[in-house]
Amino acid sequence: MHKNLIVFFSFISVYCSAQSNLSWLSNQYNTFFTEVDGELWIASASKGYNRYRGIDTKHYKLNDASRLTGTFIQSPMIQDKQGHLWTSTYENLCIFDRKKDQFYSFQVTINNDTVRMGYKVFYYESETNLIYARANDQLVTIDAATRLVVDHLGATKGTTFSVHGDRIMASPWHIDKGIEIWKKHGKQWKRSHEYFSSCEPFKDMLVTNSFYANGTWWLLTTKGLVEYNFKDPCSSRLHTFHIKSHNNSITDGYQKGNYIYAASDKNGVQIFDINQKMFLSYKNQVSEKVDYIYVDDNDRIWKSNIKFGTEVVPLSKLVDETLTFKKGRWAHIILHGDTKILLDNDNGFVISDSKGEHSVKTSSSSCFLPYINQIIALDNDRLLIAGYQDMGIYHIPNKKYSELKLPNIDGIQYLYVKDNQFAIITNNEVKTFDVRNWQKLDNPRLKPYQGTIQYTIYLSDSLHIYGSSSSHVLIQSSKF
Predict the structure, then answer these.
(1) How confident is the model over 446-468, as pLDDT tens digits?
(2) CA angle 276-279-283, nearest 5°?
(3) Whole-number Å distance between alpha carbons of 431 and 5
(4) Can you point out the beta strands (E) in 112-166?
(5) Which residues have a Cβ under 8 Å from the Cβ of 119 and sit 6 or more positions away?
(6) Which of 245-259, 367-381, 410-424 has the lowest mean pLDDT?
(7) N or C: which terminus of the chain has fewer CB atoms within 10 Å of its end residue's CB?
(8) How far apart are CA 360 and CA 369, in angstroms?
(9) Is residue 337 packed enough to be buried (19+ CB in 10 Å), middle (13-18) or exposed (0-12)?
(10) What is the DSSP letter of 231?
(11) What are the tens digits of pLDDT across the range 130-166?
């Protein structure tokens, strides 16, 4: 029975672990991270957008043929129901049309006057098809279809904005103290400002951002994280992570699930558990300034410093307390029957089963690799261990490691084993082998797509799925 190949167009999230295909327009001032259909858009704010697609990065420079016009990017990407992506530069509102692969930049008019500066898009309301934005020092709503101003809310001092229900929280940051609060009454928005002028310890506090989570508004401030109390602002609760008060300044944050990831001005990333209402006990007190932060769908933290660039680290290195080695942390758990393997990429792995547990260190006679990217259980006795260039077989019964050399392997991007078939992606090309004798298996149906494939999943002998070029799903089946 022959196998057919069907192509579906769908964006897939397949970032390379080492970000080897990520290139920046600038190593400085990278911010406004947005994931759209598995692709990561990152603003090099004074240069343009980096569109990271896993196998490559496409650049949209300011004021070039992409028609992204202005001097400095002010907003992340916000998608409307037509699939258009809204962002802004200081001088323009900008819409990216993915079909045309091009931006459209424009300015709006308020009371017959064209606004020529100070744009910032911050929210999309799908029910009304309205874009919320700041235009100079005014808050407005814009019809996403006509691109005309629908409502002029009034003047604001906010630099970052959060929206939930009938409230807009505008954080002034360096422009003013306290928090600016907008509340909707019927069809009208009314503004108030809480300065905490009579509140200790909130006097002179600057608010950098805010989040709504688990029924509470959380303010990121220069004094720590504030659990805001609308009824009695002076009874708001301050949460800190450092014994010295001046070290608790939070520059940026990202809320995901039950955690707030706070970028601190002096002590790296601090993680706050919303349910327990406390910063995690490990007290990550590294000396590090983080200006912007993002946590992607693959649970990796993107830490950006305005001057020194961006670093990507696995979330597990910060969150989990389970140590596999003296100075390490497990990054992944591999389960096979009753056997559990805890993988610490830099240090090795721990095998735990009914007979007990033992550890295998990297760069040792038990495992030659200096770094382990992936572990796959071939059967009850064998583990396939892979780095980025080399791989080997670890034999559990005798605790021995042997190198595995396969022909024409130029780097290792992705591995998968199913039904005695081993698939390896190398140089965006899939190669398949029989794990019983390591003989190569041919798959002629994939030939037209070789060079673009990013990952593979073997669901059964008759159904295989491949991710190709960040924008294709290839389904190969013997049943149709």
Answers:
(1) 666 675 666 565 444 444 555 55
(2) 140
(3) 17
(4) 113-114, 120-125, 130-135, 138-143, 149-155, 160-164
(5) 74, 75, 88, 89, 90, 91, 92, 93, 107, 133, 134, 135, 136
(6) 410-424
(7) N
(8) 11
(9) exposed
(10) S
(11) 999 999 999 999 999 999 999 999 999 999 999 999 9
